[in-house]
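User: Um, what's this?
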Amino acid sequence: MSPLLSLGFMGRFGRSAALRLFDEDLKAVDLHPNLVPEAVKLAALRILMARTDGSNPSAANSRAAAELLAYCMLGIGAFESANGSWLAGAVENRIDAALDDDTSSDAKLILLALHANVIQPSVVERYRLEAASG
């Protein structure tokens, strides 16, 4: 069983270390983890784990994913207010790069937010995002 999904027997042992770290990373960028559906968090971590052949993501990769997801979910203004213009600009540069490389982890995280319908309309509009069907 994947370390990501090792939630313990019948939930007795709590959440995996990767999920706890991701929750802390989300809090650090002003997105309460309870506002992120569990399925979205699990899918985001699976995207990161695909880069490491199934190993838990590094702390830096977890933080980067939380930043991108928070930007998508909070929207441009709220993210910048909470995290500053420098971090907002850095995430925007990552989004621009992801639009040019749809195989990147960032592109997959953006697509996850779009398909899960947790992305802010301001982000969709600014980057002209749309999910292709079929």
User: Anything to note?
Assistant: Residues 1-7 have pLDDT under 50 and may be disordered. Residues 9-127 form one domain. The first helix runs from residue 17 to 28. The CA atoms of residues 27 and 64 lie 13 Å apart.
